[in-house]
């Protein structure tokens, strides 16, 4: 290869070659030992590490499909929000009484702001020439403290979150349009059934009623006496109406 | 054949010094895991970059199907995940990559911090690195909204509430992010999409370029 020597250009206006910086690799005599050429020897090793990493990563991708909840519904205000896991420590901080409400500015801005500014300016806060962690106890100590705080807050946030309920509230539901002109539907509406079980009985904070496997009598029993977190006595209508809605619910196929 | 093509180009553009500047250097012993296994801690930075490459590539493929519109965003993601061949894999790579990149970056930051590698003359590179960290968190935040499912919408509402509680500029900041004073909807989605796909990646690539330039200029920090 000629490496660009002897180039002749028409109308050459470039800086002449003798003014260019010589292309000499960095002197690594300050780090004596078994140095290795980056290209191609070390690069190949890096690629092998990358390949092993990629295999592990793809195993994770194949085993755990990415989650997708039901389409955003701005009218559903009962949903309990949750940020992605790496924001949980900031989210948890905002739950403490000393960092929320009137002190929101402390939890949302001052504490994280101080921590992140200190991180950004670390080279100017820790200026000594010493590099070993034990030789700079303040830098090491504050960083260990921050790591402990992050882990603790994340742990607390994850522990207080009801993962089962979160899974249920986000599930993709198959919505089958029900006949909203049916008199039985009006009865359901009047007895506030729909506010928990959804306008198409597809479920909400309560379980879906569409496609239930229960018998008419069981539906009547639950409507009157409740079940789980549903208190008894929500249904206020007559026995005739009760029969009507039970048959209506039974008739809705999934 | 390849050599001839190379020579033809090199004769005209003198490209040899370009790649020599990037590739011609020695790797010192103390960062080479082949000599000291504990030097694997030096891999975290490179693996972070590797995941960034995965994110860019998978994101490019996702954008072939994704529609940033409140009526179609969720439908397009659902279609991608359930109908498109390997759509679930591509979306999975982008989803999990977003988490793994945070983990790798965290480890890389801790390695640099506890080794005191940010000290003179490498202060500027530390600052650029922390800025990359912030950009990455912002990418995670904006990307969370894009599937337009329940958790996306509700997490974004919380984020916007926090942004709104900023002293002095809170209302303006919220309007800037969500596109409206009150509504979190169509315009919020397009703004987050633009920020996630254009503004932040541009900033990220520029900062990563600076990060690497400074490493080449200064060399890696010496052994402890």
How is the secondary structure organized here?
The complex is a heterodimer of chains A (254) and B (224).
Chain A: E1 36-37, H1 38-63, H2 88-93, H3 104-120, H4 122-125, H5 137-160, H6 163-170, H7 183-190, H8 193-197, H9 216-225, H10 239-251
Helix pairs in contact in A: 7-10, 9-10
Chain B: H1 2-13, H2 16-23, E1 26-27, H3 43-62, H4 73-82, H5 87-114, H6 123-145, H7 150-164, H8 170-178, H9 186-218
GO biological process, one term (chain B): respiratory electron transport chain
Pfam families (chain B): Cytochrome_B
Domain Cytochrome b/b6 N-terminal region profile (chain B): 5-224
Outline of this structure?
The complex is a heterodimer of chains A (254) and B (224). Chain A is mostly helical and 254 residues long. Chain A has helices at residues 38-63, 88-93, 104-120, 122-125, 137-160, 163-170, 183-190, 193-197, 216-225, 239-251; one strand at residues 36-37.
What can you tell me about this protein's structure?
The complex is a heterodimer of chains A (about 250) and B (about 220). By secondary structure, chain A is an all-alpha fold. Chain A has 3 domains: about 30-65; about 85-160, no CATH class; about 185-250, Cytochrome c-like domain (Cytochrome Bc1 Complex, Chain D, domain 2, Orthogonal Bundle). Chain A is built from 10 helices and 1 strand. Chain B has about 220 residues and is mainly alpha-helical. Chain B contains 9 helices and 1 strand. In chain B, α6 (about 125-145) packs across α7 (about 150-165). The longest helix of chain B is centred in the C-terminal third of the chain and has 33 residues, at about 185-220. The termini of chain B are far apart.
């Amino acid at each position: 290869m000629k490496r660009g020597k002897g180039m002749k250009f028409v109308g050459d206006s470039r800086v002449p070659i003798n003014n260019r910086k010589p292309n000499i690799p960095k002197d690594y005599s300050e780090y004596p030992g078994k140095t290795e050429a980056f290209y191609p020897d070390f690069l190949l090793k890096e690629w092998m590490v990358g390949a092993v990493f990629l295999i592990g990563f793809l195993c994770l991708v194949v085993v755990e499909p990415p989650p997708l909840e039901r389409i955003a519904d701005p009218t559903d205000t009962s949903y309990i929000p949750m940020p992605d896991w790496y924001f949980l420590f900031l989210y948890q901080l905002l739950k403490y009484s000393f960092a929320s409400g009137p002190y929101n500015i402390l939890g949302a801005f001052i504490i994280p702001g101080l921590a992140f500014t200190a991180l950004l300016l670390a080279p100017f806060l820790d200026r000594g020439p010493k590099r070993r962690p034990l030789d700079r106890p303040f830098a090491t100590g504050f960083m260990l403290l921050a790591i402990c705080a992050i882990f603790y807050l994340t742990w607390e946030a994850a522990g207080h979150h009801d993962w089962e309920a979160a899974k249920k509230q986000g599930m993709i539901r198959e919505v089958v349009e029900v006949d909203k002109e049916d008199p039985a539907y009006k009865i359901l509406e009047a007895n506030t059934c729909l506010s928990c079980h959804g306008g198409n009985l597809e479920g909400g904070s309560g379980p879906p009623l569409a496609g239930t496997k229960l018998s008419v009598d069981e539906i009547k029993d639950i409507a009157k006496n409740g079940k789980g977190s549903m208190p008894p006595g929500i249904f206020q209508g007559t026995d005739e109406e009760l029969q009507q809605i039970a048959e209506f619910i039974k008739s809705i196929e999934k | 054949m390849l050599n001839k093509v190379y020579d033809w180009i090199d004769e005209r553009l003198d490209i040899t010094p370009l790649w020599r500047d990037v590739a011609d250097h020695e790797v010192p012993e103390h960062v080479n895991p082949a000599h000291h296994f504990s030097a694997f801690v030096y891999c975290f930075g490179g693996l972070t970059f590797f995941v960034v490459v995965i994110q860019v590539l998978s994101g490019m493929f996702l954008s072939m199907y994704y529609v940033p519109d409140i009526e179609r965003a969720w439908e397009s993601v659902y279609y991608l995940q359930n109908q498109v061949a390997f759509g679930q894999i591509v979306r999975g790579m982008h989803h999990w990559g977003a988490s793994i990149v945070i983990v790798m970056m965290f480890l890389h930051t801790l390695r640099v911090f506890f080794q005191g590698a940010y000290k003179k003359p490498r202060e500027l590179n530390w600052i650029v690195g922390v800025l990359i960290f912030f950009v990455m968190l912002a990418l995670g935040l904006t990307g969370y909204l894009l599937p337009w499912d329940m958790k996306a919408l509700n997490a974004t509402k919380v984020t916007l509430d926090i942004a709104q509680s900023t002293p002095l500029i809170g209302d303006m900041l919220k309007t800037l992010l969500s596109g409206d004073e009150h509504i979190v909807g169509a315009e919020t989605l397009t703004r987050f999409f633009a920020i996630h796909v254009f503004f932040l990646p541009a900033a990220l690539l520029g900062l990563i370029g600076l990060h690497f330039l400074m490493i080449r200029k200064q060399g890696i920090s010496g052994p402890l």
